[in-house]
Design goal:
This protein has 445 residues and is of the alpha/beta class. The protein is built from 11 helices and 16 strands. The protein binds ligand FHN.
Length: 445
């Protein structure tokens, strides 16, 4: 019986995997342009995540940990939530200021919510009035404005697009979330919803010129539904073959996806419970993180992470070969929270000096350890010592016979690096230890 059950389980799980897998873009072969963009993406290393929507007006409703989920967490009926756009008037939104800030912060791209789970389109959608141009007093397409400025200043723009939708009547059967929203429709045609979503995606891919890619989220709400991924992915790649597709489904990438993301955990770690799978070595990686505990604007969440902690996470992510996508939740007036600006400027300041050890690198020869991480560019390995305990560090996995020189990144002076049989031993005198990251540059033959 037990054998039968486990066989049954294996067959069922395999069939489940297969059905989603087969419905993804089977046989997808990325174009050269797409492959070039993947390289660009990995070189870029650092981007700004933006969660901005009509929910920002609520500021989390004075509940730490709620922001863009307020509709769901407070069971706000659709008919009431639909009043929010009427108050959304971000008159102080200045895209030039946002993009200049991003550049000063050392970030190379922005990923912004074109639609979150609340179903509200933050761009000029022709197929639904539930959008920023038609439904708000502001009446302007913030996504279009931002894209124009990004093009001017040479920053790539990606769209976060939620597949989950608490507002659309055809998002039925409902998934795991939003079941307390009393006036959600009790019937609907999920295929019609997918058609709607694909039409909105087509708008996003044709109205704004070349974009960086699409960052999907929300499939986890109905993991067994027929999302018609193959069609969606083919549509995106048809409109823009170079656009990178990623999906936050918390699984290994499906065919048609061009990068893999990890939410609030480094690749391979799982403190949040999202990352139960492995790490793909076929596509680029990205890790996203909040600056406090919220994605969207939360007025009482002051749980800000320190600059040091965020730089350490960025460097560790780079040590895994992953990009770092750091989030801000702009305020309803269109301004970025000043605390976030300060943090971004401080990280940008650090990158002005140390960017060379992060941008354009790939994961180093040794995976991140408690003491720090390694990154590599051609024959140069950067040893990032983030947590020096005053004792020699033994690093295995560096081909010490290829070692030509070892110097401190800061002043080029010789570092105390000794070969041993499995790798190298590093000792750092107190005066050489930097408060955030002591970088030693190894040049290999
Ligand atoms: O539910 C969302 C959440 O609001 C936010 O957008 C994050 C960003 O990674 N992703 C989801 C949960 O996995």
């Amino acid at each position: 019986m037990r054998l039968y059950l486990s066989k049954f389980l294996v067959v069922t799980l395999f069939a489940g995997f297969l059905s989603i897998h087969l419905s993804a873009q089977e046989g997808y072969v990325p174009t050269q342009e797409n492959l070039d963009n993947r390289e660009w993406f990995q070189d870029a290393k650092y981007g700004l995540f933006v969660h901005w929507g009509v929910y920002s007006i609520m500021g989390g409703g004075c509940d730490e940990g709620i922001a863009e989920w307020i509709m769901e967490r407070k069971d706000i009926p659709i008919v009431q939530y639909e009043k929010l756009p009427g108050f959304f008037n971000p008159t102080q939104f200045d895209p030039a200021q946002w993009v200049s800030m991003v550049k000063k912060a050392g970030m190379k791209y922005i990923t912004i919510t074109s639609k979150h789970h609340d179903g509200f389109a933050m761009y000029d959608s022709k197929i639904s009035d539930y959008n920023i141009v038609d439904a708000t007093p502001y009446g302007k397409d913030v996504i279009g404005m931002l894209k124009e400025e990004c093009d001017k200043q040479g920053v790539k723009l990606f769209f976060y697009h939620s597949q989950l939708d608490w507002h659309h009547p055809d998002y039925f059967p409902h998934g795991r979330t939003g079941n307390g929203i009393a006036d959600r429709s009790q019937s609907g045609d999920f295929n019609a919803y997918i058609d709607y979503m694909n039409s909105q995606l087509s708008e996003l891919l044709t109205q704004y010129g070349e974009i960086g890619g699409i960052w999907f989220d929300g499939m986890w709400d109905k993991p067994d539904a027929n999302w018609r991924l193959g069609e969606t992915y083919a549509l995106i790649h048809k409109h823009q073959p170079g656009a990178l597709i990623g999906s936050n489904h918390h699984k290994m990438p499906y065919p048609g996806e061009d990068f893999m993301m990890f939410e609030r955990d480094l690749p391979g770690e799982n403190s949040m419970g999202f990352n139960n799978t492995g790490i793909s070595d076929a596509v680029p990686l990205e890790m996203c993180e909040t600056m406090n505990g919220s994605w969207g604007f939360n007025i009482i969440d002051q749980n800000y992470k320190s600059v040091e902690k965020l730089i350490h996470t960025m460097v560790r992510a780079a040590g895994y070969g992953a990009n770092f996508l750091l989030n801000t939740g702009p305020m309803p007036n269109g301004k970025i929270q000043p605390e976030n600006v300060d943090t971004l400027m401080a990280i940008g300041h650090w990158l002005e000096s140390y960017g060379e050890t992060v941008y354009g690198t790939r994961k180093g020869p040794v995976k991140p350890q408690e003491w720090g991480a390694t990154t590599i560019k051609d024959n140069v390995v950067y040893i990032h010592v983030l947590n020096y305990k005053g004792r020699a560090i033994e690093i295995q996995g560096i081909e010490s016979d290829r070692l030509r020189s070892a110097v401190y990144f800061d002043d080029g002076s010789r570092a105390d690096v000794k070969r041993n049989k499995d790798g190298i031993t590093i000792t750092i005198p107190k005066e050489k230890v930097k408060p955030i990251d002591t970088v030693i540059v190894l040049t290999l033959m």
